[in-house]
């Protein structure tokens, strides 16, 4: 059979761990519901692969979604989906653990279970079937997929994973009897949500709370790692043989974000802010390069510039890197003198583009979303950059933010034009010959997400998004130095349903999968009309999930506790309407509730 | 220093003395399913992990200087390919083989190496012929049929277009080591004229009616590469 990029199905990479299969071992298969090239760029995979391969009695292998060509070939020939390490079909494992980083991968979960010969619904699985679990940020509202998972991890996985597999070990040692009792046992672990113990109720077509089985907690509390310096970091990650999306090594600087942008789910989910020490990171950075042979190291976090040890860390790393032709990648850096100098030193390659994320076109709207950046900041940074020889700028914005008007959309175009003018003015000022500047404006669609101050907001409709996109396109089309790129509206609109969906969507997703949908995250495969038809045939409408809630309503994710309180989110929502900003965590605690973890930056 | 001066400095090439380790390598298993550029990256990362005194290209984006004799297609095993790696200082070939093999992923292995001081010709330019083995049921009879023809026309993709071409002149001879289900042959190879085994297999199917399903499942191995002018062929090893 001839398939595209066969290298993604064979494993055999440097640092792959292949343990011999024994009877008394708990075998986990880490399932990534997208292709190998995307999954292998995922840090969670590398971290948990190492953790779960730690103890002698636990092993972890990997499986990825086969691309449609391979999917068809496997079905035709009756080949089950297998793990890369030992070529074992998924149904031979004790645990199938899915990493969910984005909602649109849901049908791929079903594809992997189906090809792996595991019954799709938790209720249909027998004693010997694998325990199917999920983790990742999407799990803060797993209701649209709740029927398919036996258990779900809320929060960070490094510690809870082994507590979980230890319970599975007892179950396996006892001959795998009474699956229901096992699930109740698993629900006792902090941070483990067992959806089958919670039965949703509906009133007048709206979600109205859960009936909770005895013994299950009223709300499942997110797990965090209190001290990131103390957990094992994968300094010998698996090095793919074929070209993956991010072909470099990674260091995670810190978790959480001090900023509190009101649209950003990650900013609330990963609280409290916890940094790793520069000393730990430097040691890990040097070993990871040595163990992988990569020539580029990416520093990961939600906002690189907010890392307090950035100076020390980059100085030390670059000192070691310069003789070995190694470079540093610094995403999400706020541009100032230090940053420009650092970018110059960090990369041995040509000046790449600069990236800014003002997110909104006017100061009013930036205050609504608490994006602590103003036009003057942007212009000052850009002037510095233009003087330093940069001429490529990328600007990221969102359309459909709460309270947005057409004036705000026009503000995006105005800002891009001001930047173009600034480039030529700066060149004239310093007497340099101007090149053709490349200014890229990119817009995505704002999707309200759980656990943000905007979780109750209505989402823009497809028509509203399209109107804003085309207005902006018209404003920018005559300007040759400005390029406008936009995201697919339909995929984003649909993502909104999953983000705030409830358990009634399980049947919809299952039917969509059975009708042939996979890889919905890929625009070329996503069929909006078909999905809308299926949704409606189940008596549901798109608006049921996107028209918004009152702050008094029960929400499908009310049984999950991420530390940040509803009271705080309500306060932030009021401040958003009042166009008032909230100070960042470092300058003043806003009392979000995450201090309950007694970790990191919290007082 | 302003931008222009920096650019100038970066683009002015200095002469770097090249001590080359020329290695004979094999690949099979998982590593056969990756493309040429991916294989190059696998070597680059293994060389960096081995902490060898690599010489880097000059310019904007320094890369270790390595050169393969002939790209290997996806899915093709090899028992006799060559790769040159440039070093800053002379390196004992045996030490090179030991250190790189410790770091290469399973499936790729350097069998032996020689060290060359400033080779004049590029490795790619010295390749002229190759030997291949194709394993598939009854393939040898079909291939011998092709050898008995005067012209073997097939289409191949060239610059995105399909062009008709006669591949018969590129075939040199079948090898006596062939068995009914394992055909071994020699053909022209390299940057001047080259016959890819998948193009040959396609032609075999088209001209002899050999089953294209069987051809799709065939296992292909490159056995050796040679330099010189056939029939005066020589080993790649010492060609500089």
The CATH topology of the largest domain in chain A turns out to be Rossmann fold
Poorly predicted spans of chain B: none
Measured as a percent range, the helix fraction of chain A is 25-40%
CATH architecture of the largest domain in chain A: 3-Layer(aba) Sandwich
* CATH-defined fold name of the largest domain in chain B: Alpha-Beta Plaits
Number of helices of chain A: 19
Radius of gyration of chain A: 24 Å
Roughly how much helix do the residues of chain B carry, as a percent range? Answer: 25-40%
Query: Class of the largest domain in chain A in CATH?
Result: Alpha Beta
CATH class designation of the largest domain in chain B: Alpha Beta
Radius of gyration of chain B from the CA trace? 20 Å
Give the overall average pLDDT of chain A. 94
Shape of chain B: elongated
Total individual domains of chain A: 3
The profile of the biggest β sheet of chain B is:
9 strands, mixed
Please report the two chains with the greatest interface, counting residues with C-beta closer than 8 angstroms to the partner's C-beta.
A-B, 27 and 29 residues
Q: What proportion strand of chain B?
A: 25-35%
- Structural category of chain B is alpha+beta
Q: How many beta-strand segments of chain A?
A: 19
What's the short version?
With 603 residues, chain A is an alpha/beta fold. Chain A contains 19 helices and 19 strands.
3D architecture notes:
- The complex is a heterodimer of chains A (about 600) and B (about 240).
- By secondary structure, chain A is of the alpha/beta class.
- Chain A has 3 domains: about 10-220, Rossmann fold (3-Layer(aba) Sandwich); about 250-350 and about 560-603, Transcription Regulator spoIIAA, CATH 3.30.750; about 355-485, Transcription Regulator spoIIAA (2-Layer Sandwich), CATH 3.30.750.
- Helices cover about 35% and strands about 15% of the residues of chain A.
- Chain A has 19 helices and 19 strands.
- Chain A has helices at about 35-40, 45-50, 70-75, 105-115, 160-175, 180-185, 265-270, 280-290, 310-320, 335-345, 365-370, 375-385, 405-430, 460-475, 490-500, 505-515, 530-535, 545, 565-575, and strands spanning about 25-30, 60-65, 95-100, 130-135, 150-155, 190-195, 200-205, 205-210, 220, 250, 255, 275, 295-300, 325-330, 355-360, 390-400, 440-445, 480-485, 560.
- In chain A, the strands form 6 sheets. A 6-stranded mixed beta sheet of chain A has the order 2-1-3-4-5-6.
- In chain A, helix 4 (about 105-115) links the parallel strand 3 and strand 4.
- In chain A, about 50% of the residues are buried.
- Chain B is an alpha+beta fold and about 240 residues long.
- In chain B, about 25% of the residues lie in helices and about 35% in strands.
- Chain B has 7 helices and 11 strands.
- Chain B has helices at about 5-10, 35-50, 95-105, 125, 140-145, 195-210, 210-215; strands spanning about 20-25, 65-70, 75-85, 110-115, 130-135, 155-160, 160-165, 170-175, 180-190, 220-230, 230-235.
- In chain B, the strands form 2 sheets. In chain B, strands 1, 2, 3, 4, 5, 8, 9, 10 and 11 form a 9-stranded mixed beta sheet that branches. Chain B has a two-stranded antiparallel ribbon with strand order 6-7.
- The interface between A and B is medium-sized, with 27 and 29 residues.
């Amino acid at each position: 059979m001839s398939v595209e990029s066969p290298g993604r199905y064979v494993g055999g990479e440097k640092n792959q761990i292949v343990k011999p299969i024994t009877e008394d071992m708990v075998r986990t298969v880490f399932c990534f519901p997208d292709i190998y090239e995307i999954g292998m760029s995922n840090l969670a995979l590398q971290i948990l692969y190492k953790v779960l391969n730690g103890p002698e009695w636990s092993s972890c292998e990997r499986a990825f979604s086969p691309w449609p060509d391979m999917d068809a070939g496997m079905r035709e020939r009756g080949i089950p989906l297998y793990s890369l390490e030992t070529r074992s079909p998924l149904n031979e494992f004790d645990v199938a653990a899915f990493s969910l980083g984005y909602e649109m991968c849901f049908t791929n979960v079903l594809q992997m279970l189906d090809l792996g010969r595991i019954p799709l619904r938790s209720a249909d699985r027998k004693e010997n079937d694998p325990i199917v679990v999920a983790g990742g940020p999407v799990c803060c509202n797993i209701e649209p997929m709740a029927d398919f998972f036996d258990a779900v991890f809320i929060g960070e996985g490094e510690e809870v994973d082994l507590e979980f597999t230890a319970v599975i070990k007892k179950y396996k040692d006892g001959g795998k009897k009474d699956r229901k009792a096992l699930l109740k046992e698993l629900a006792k672990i902090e941070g483990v949500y067992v959806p089958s113990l919670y039965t949703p109720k509906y009133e007048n077509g709206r979600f109205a709370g859960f009936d909770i089985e005895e013994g299950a907690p009223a709300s499942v509390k997110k797990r965090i790692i209190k001290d990131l310096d103390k957990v094992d970091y994968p300094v010998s990650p698996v090095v793919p043989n074929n070209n993956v999306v991010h072909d470099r090594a990674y260091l995670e600087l810190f978790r959480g974000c001090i900023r509190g942008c009101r649209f950003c789910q990650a900013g609330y989910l990963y609280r409290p802010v916890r940094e790793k020490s520069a000393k730990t990171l430097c040691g890990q950075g040097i070993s990871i390069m040595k163990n992988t042979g990569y020539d580029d190291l990416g520093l990961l976090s939600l906002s690189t510039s907010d890392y307090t040890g950035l100076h020390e860390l980059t100085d030390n790393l670059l000192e070691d890197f310069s003789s070995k032709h190694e470079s540093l990648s610094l995403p999400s850096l706020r541009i100032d003198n230090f940053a420009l100098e650092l970018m110059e030193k960090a990369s041995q390659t040509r000046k790449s583009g600069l990236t800014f994320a003002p997110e909104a076109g006017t100061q009013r709207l930036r205050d609504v979303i608490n994006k602590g950046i103003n036009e003057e900041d942007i212009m000052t940074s850009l002037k510095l950059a233009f003087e330093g020889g940069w001429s490529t700028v990328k600007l990221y914005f969102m359309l459909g933010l709460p309270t947005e008007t057409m004036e705000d959309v026009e503000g995006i175009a105005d800002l891009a034009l001001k930047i173009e003018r600034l480039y030529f003015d700066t060149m004239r000022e310093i007497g340099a010959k101007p090149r053709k500047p490349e200014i890229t404006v990119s817009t995505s669609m704002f999707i309200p997400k759980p656990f943000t101050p905007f979780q109750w907001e209505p989402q823009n409709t497809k028509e509203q998004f399209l109107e804003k996109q085309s207005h902006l396109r018209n404003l920018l089309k005559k300007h040759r130095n400005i390029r406008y790129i936009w995201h697919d509206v339909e995929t984003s609109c649909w993502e909104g349903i999953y983000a705030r969906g409830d358990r009634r969507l399980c049947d919809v997703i299952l039917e969509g999968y059975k009708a042939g949908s996979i890889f919905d995250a890929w625009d070329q495969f996503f069929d909006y009309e078909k999905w809308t038809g299926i949704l409606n045939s189940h008596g549901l409408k798109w608006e049921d999930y996107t028209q918004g809630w009152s702050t008094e309503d029960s929400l499908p994710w009310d049984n999950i506790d991420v530390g940040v309180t509803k009271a705080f989110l309500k306060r932030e929502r009021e401040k958003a309407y009042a166009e008032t900003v909230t100070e960042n965590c470092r300058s003043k605690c806003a009392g979000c509730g995450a201090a309950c973890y007694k970790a990191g930056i919290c007082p | 220093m302003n931008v222009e001066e920096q650019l100038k400095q970066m683009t002015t090439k200095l002469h770097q003395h090249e001590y080359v380790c020329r290695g004979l390598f094999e690949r099979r298993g998982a590593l056969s399913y990756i493309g040429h550029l991916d294989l190059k990256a696998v070597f680059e990362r293994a060389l960096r992990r081995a902490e060898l005194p690599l010489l880097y290209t000059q310019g904007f984006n320094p890369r270790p200087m390595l050169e393969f004799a002939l790209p290997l297609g996806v899915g093709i095993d090899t028992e006799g390919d060559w790769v040159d790696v440039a070093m800053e200082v002379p390196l004992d070939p045996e030490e090179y083989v030991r250190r790189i093999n410790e770091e290469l992923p399973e499936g790729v292995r350097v069998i032996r190496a020689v060290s060359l001081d400033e080779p004049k010709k590029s490795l790619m330019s010295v390749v002229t012929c190759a030997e291949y083995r194709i394993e598939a049921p009854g393939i040898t009879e079909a291939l011998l049929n092709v050898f008995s023809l005067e012209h073997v026309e097939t289409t191949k993709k060239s610059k995105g277009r399909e062009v008709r071409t006669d591949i018969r002149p590129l075939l040199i001879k079948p090898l006596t080591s062939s068995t009914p289900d394992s055909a071994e042959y020699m053909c022209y190879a390299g940057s001047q004229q080259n016959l890819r085994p998948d193009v040959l297999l396609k032609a075999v199917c088209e001209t002899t009616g050999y089953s294209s399903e069987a051809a799709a499942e065939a296992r292909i191995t490159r056995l050796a590469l040679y330099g010189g002018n056939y029939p005066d062929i020589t080993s790649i090893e010492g060609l500089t």
